[in-house]
Every structure is written in C-alpha cells, then in structure tokens.
Amino acid sequence: MHARVKRAAAPADAAAPADAAPVALATLCAIFLKVGCTSFGGFMVMIGVTEDAVAQRRKLMTPQQVLDGLTLASVLPGPMAINLVAYVGYHLRGAAGAAVCVGAAVAPSFLCMLAFSAAYFRWGHVAALGQVFMGVVPAVAAIILAAAWRMWGACVGDWREGALAVAALALALLLPGLHTTFLMLAAAALAGWRCFGGAATERRRTAPAPRAGAPVPRRAALLLAALPLLGLAPGVLLKLLAAFAGMSLLMFGGGYVFIPMLQHTVVDGYGWVTRRELVDALAMGQLTPGPVAISAAFIGYKVAGVAGAAVASVGMFAPAAALTVACARLLERVRHSAAVRAALRGVRAAVLGMVAAAAVVVGKAAAPHWLSLALFALTFGLLLRYRVEAVWVVPAAGAIGLLVF
C-alpha cells in the first residue's frame, strides 16, 4: 500500500537523472553497437533494448524521457527505432551524439545485410535462416513486453494513465493502422491536457538542455569529388541517395508501411531489382539485428556494390534522423509548459499501450509449438527477474530454433 501511494505521488514528468559529466561519444558508440547487435525482430525490439540500455541499466535518461522520444519518433517520418536512437543521442550529446548513436545502431545490421547480399548474388536464394527466425520471434515478443512492463511501473502514476494505456492497447489491436495511431495520440494529448492540466502544484524543474556536441563535419563535397577517383559513378550514387531519402521522408507508420512505395520505386520505377529479389531483401532484413528498412542496403549493393549499399542506407536513415533532431530541439523549448507536460502524460500512456500491442502482434507470428511459449516465458523471466541482457538471450533463442523447428 505504501509503495503504491509513493509511486502515485511521484511526479509524472520526473526530472532527468542527476546532471553528471557529459557522456563520452565513445561510450555512446559502445552502448548502441550493443543495441544494434541485439535488436533482432524489428523496430520494436530496438526500442525495447534502447530503453533498457539507457534508462534501466545506465540511468542516462528516465523512462519518461524515453517515452517522449518514442512519441516524437512515432509521429515523424522514417524508421521509428532509428528516430528514437537519434533523439536519445541528441538529448545526451547534441548533434554529434545523434550521429554517433545512429551510426552505431545501424552498423551491425548493415554489415549483416552486406554479407547476406554478397552470398545471395553469388549463390542465389537464402532459405537456411528461417528456422533461426522462428526461435527468435517468441524471444522478441518477450523483450517488447518486458520493456512495456518496466515503463508501466515508471510512468503510470494513477488509474487515468492506466486507463489511457489499456484503451490504446485495445485500439491498436482492434483497429491497426497509421490513421488510428495519429488519432490515438491526438486524443491522448487532449485527455492528458484535460485530466492533468490542473495539477500545477508540481515544482517547476528545468531539465538540463541537451549537451552540445561538436557540429557534424561537412565533408560531403569532398567525398563526392573523390568518387570518380575510386572508380564509382557519382550519378548512380546520387540517384540512389535521392530515391531513398525521398522514401525516408514519406515513410509514416513504420518500416512495413513503406513496402508498396519501395516496390513502386525500385522495381517498377528504376528496375533496380526484381520482385523476387525485393521479397528476399525484405526477408533478409528481418533476419538482421535492426529495422527492416536496412533492406535498402541490399538494393544499393546490387546497383553499385558496397558504395551503393552505404549510400542507400544513408539515404534511408539520415534524413528522418536529422528531422527528429530538429524537432527534438523544439520539444526541449516547449516541454516545460504546464499544458505541454500534461498533454505528454496522456501521450506517454497511449504510447505505452501501443508498445504492449506490438508484443501481442509479434507473439502471434510465433510458431504454434509448445517451445514458442516456453521460450517466451523463459525470456520474459530472465529479463525481469535476473536482468539478463538481450545480447545473450536472442542468439540463444535463435540457436534453439535452428535445432528444433
């Protein structure tokens, strides 16, 4: 009883952890390399692993701040998980932190996709990794649910926030889609403003401003001038960059929403890959430890080798991440308004329900086998009870799937 009262009395918009020395860029790189290596199963897994790494284990941010970043990432175009990573990096070390975190988080899946692409175009269709994926799916569902469980304990202070989270969970499952997401977030912001706007007795706190990082170097012109010396065609690379940057800024609602746009552009428009190759690229994207949008690297690799894969990946992730950083600056300026804080309380609860819904959706994709339920329960227990890191759980689940399924 006392614990419940204590949690309910805690401010919903908790202050940031004590302002310590700025986090070193090398430390951020190491953290998000690990995040990038363990985020098998899609963007929601990377979100869960990111929250565990920066809020639970290292206390660099509060769960409320992570949810604020997730809210911003969910309403902006581009891969949602990478947008969240950009927000976290910017909050901790400014623009340089955002660049380092995004690069480190994308690097493992990019290297995996390069290896898959090289093998694919040398030996043909890759089908041997399907069994690994079947073992990973229940573990992925457990990782997402564990993140939602932890954030519930940290962010839900009374029955009104709990009701908003449950309502968002139900709507996300019953009426999935981009329009539902936007309407849900808008309704939650209005409900939060109405329900929590009058509670202005909270002591006003000024969260530390994002730690300024060094400006990102402007070397694009030098790199472009060096391309002919490397035997690369700048025209082809610029076309890849423009195509994927355009899709990135039009990609609302997650990686799977942009698949029809991707087919229209790279198959029907430019003819860079066949439909079968696109399907295989998307399948291999699900087997890398990162967002399915890393399939862009496969397409770029076929068009212009390693340089094409790199340019396509930059086009897919960098524009939306830069937009997230720009919007994060605006959010930092207005978030201390009493009305904005109240609205954010409602939006956080709705986002929390959406995270829980993602765990249900992923769980439905698991193989109908007793081992799937066992892997889910074991992973969930290891994450919450023993705080085992996903870096150990996900590969073990994949190995079990390879042996059993």
TrEMBL record:
NCBIfam families: 2A51
Main localisation: membrane
Keywords (A to Z) from UniProt: Cell membrane, Membrane, Transmembrane, Transmembrane helix
Cited InterPro entries: Chr_Tranpt_l_chain, CHR_Transporter, Chromate_transpt
Location in or out of the cell: Cell membrane
Organism annotation: Janthinobacterium fluminis
Keyword presence, Isomerase: no
Family to which this protein belongs: Belongs to the chromate ion transporter (CHR) (TC 2.A.51) family.
PANTHER family named in the record: CHROMATE TRANSPORT PROTEIN-RELATED (PTHR43663), CHROMATE TRANSPORTER (PTHR43663:SF1)
Membrane topology recorded in Swiss-Prot or TrEMBL: Multi-pass membrane protein
Domain of life: Bacteria
UniProt name for this protein: Chromate efflux transporter
Keyword Iron-sulfur: no
Gene that this polypeptide is encoded by: chrA
Pfam families: Chromate_transp (PF02417)
Segments crossing the lipid bilayer: 30-49, 70-90, 96-120, 132-152, 164-196, 216-234, 240-259, 307-331, 343-363
